[in-house]
């Protein structure tokens, strides 16, 4: 099966969760013996996919703004040139007019359509995503929650939307201890972008409350890339008890997960939520929001709390950090639960949708 992938969004220095998921899917599709994959995007993609066919025709400056123009003008011609069986658009970046092959479009969530993005990006997504969804032959998304959001917000039939859950990198299950980071001996961990929907201020407030009430020795470690200008941003005041390493490698992230006492993720809006599953895979207890997709993805393997109730988050942190038996029980339960999510299963499900679309 010949698959084209619109890889325009991959050419970034610090990829966010949705782009990382798309890159993982692409690597697995390339590695399969039953697929022939060609990537469309900037020539810098060669650094990620060194042994893959990449068509960067007319993609001149490595600019996302220029990429939008390329996507609307050059990409339809390139699709026809390569005689594809299907085009996969992994980040809501599908053509807005019909092209020469069936199109499968992935929409991770509709956060931009609900006001969680910023400025021109939000305007663009509100126009382009619904239009692309209506033109695409099939849509995949990452949770039943997102499927419901898509069908409600974009007004398309649920029969056109398939759920393909994300997977967890085998690194996080392995005995590899990762690459050491300069972190405190005792710490609570958050991983994510500096976006208000991640509720980082809620994490900080809960951490400060438990520090005052329980006098725990822990610091708060916040790992993640600087927020992109396309998203609404937050400012975090630098405190002695808050450590911010910034964007880290996967091996450094493994080390951070594995050595944290608790992972806290009270997000206000998630289409899937990969970091808490990665933390579970590393044997770290998880506290997460009881809203949006997180109850579906995490089930009862995490402690789910109302994300706006700071005292609930704080008291749960206190319980897990002081009750050794409960900590151990929750860590074991989380690790077992995380094993359900593999990239092999996820990629099989995605390819199944592509085959159905082609046939």
TrEMBL record:
InterPro entries documented for this protein: Glyco_trans_1 (IPR001296), Glyco_trans_4-like_N (IPR028098)
Glycosyltransferase subfamily 4-like N-terminal domain sequence ranges: 15-170
GO molecular function, one term: transferase activity
Coiled coil: none
Gene3D superfamilies given in the database record: Glycogen Phosphorylase B
Domain Glycosyl transferase family span(s) in chain numbering: 185-336
SUPFAM superfamilies, alphabetized: UDP-Glycosyltransferase/glycogen phosphorylase
Keywords: Transferase
Name of a matching Pfam family: Glyco_transf_4
Identification of the protein by name: Glycosyltransferase family 4 protein
Protein species of origin: Natrinema soli
């Amino acid at each position: 099966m010949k698959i084209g992938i619109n890889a325009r969004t991959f050419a970034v220095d610090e990829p966010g969760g949705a782009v990382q998921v798309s890159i993982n899917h692409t690597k697995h599709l390339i590695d399969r013996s039953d697929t022939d994959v060609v990537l469309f995007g900037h020539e810098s993609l060669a650094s990620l996919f060194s042994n893959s066919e990449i068509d960067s025709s007319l993609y001149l400056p490595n600019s996302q703004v220029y990429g939008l123009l390329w996507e609307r003008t050059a990409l339809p011609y390139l699709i026809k040139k390569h005689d594809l069986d299907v085009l996969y658009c992994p980040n809501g970046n599908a053509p807005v007019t019909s092209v020469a092959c069936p199109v499968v479009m992935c929409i991770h969530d509709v956060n931009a359509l609900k006001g969680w993005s910023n400025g021109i990006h939000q305007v663009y997504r509100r126009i382009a995503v619904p239009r692309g969804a209506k033109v695409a032959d099939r849509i995949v998304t990452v949770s039943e929650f997102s499927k419901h959001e898509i069908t409600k917000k974009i007004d398309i039939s649920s029969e056109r939307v398939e759920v393909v859950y994300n997977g967890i990198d085998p690194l996080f299950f392995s005995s590899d201890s990762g690459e050491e980071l300069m972190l405190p001996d005792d710490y609570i961990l958050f991983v994510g972008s500096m976006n208000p929907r991640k509720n980082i201020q809620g994490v900080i407030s809960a951490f400060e409350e438990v520090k005052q009430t329980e006098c725990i020795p822990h610091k708060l470690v916040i790992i993640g890339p600087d927020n992109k200008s396309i998203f609404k941003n937050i400012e975090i005041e630098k405190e002695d008890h808050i450590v911010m390493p910034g964007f880290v490698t996967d091996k450094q992230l493994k080390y951070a997960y594995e050595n944290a006492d608790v992972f806290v993720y009270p997000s206000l809006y998630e289409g899937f939520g990969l970091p808490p599953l990665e933390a579970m895979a590393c044997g770290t207890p998880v506290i997460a929001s009881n809203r949006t997709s997180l109850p579906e993805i995490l089930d009862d393997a995490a402690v789910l709390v109302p994300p706006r109730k700071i005292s609930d988050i704080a008291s749960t942190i206190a319980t897990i950090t002081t009750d050794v038996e409960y900590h151990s029980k929750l860590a074991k339960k989380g690790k077992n639960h995380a094993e359900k999510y593999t990239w092999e299963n996820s990629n099989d499900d995605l390819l199944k949708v592509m085959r159905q679309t082609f046939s």
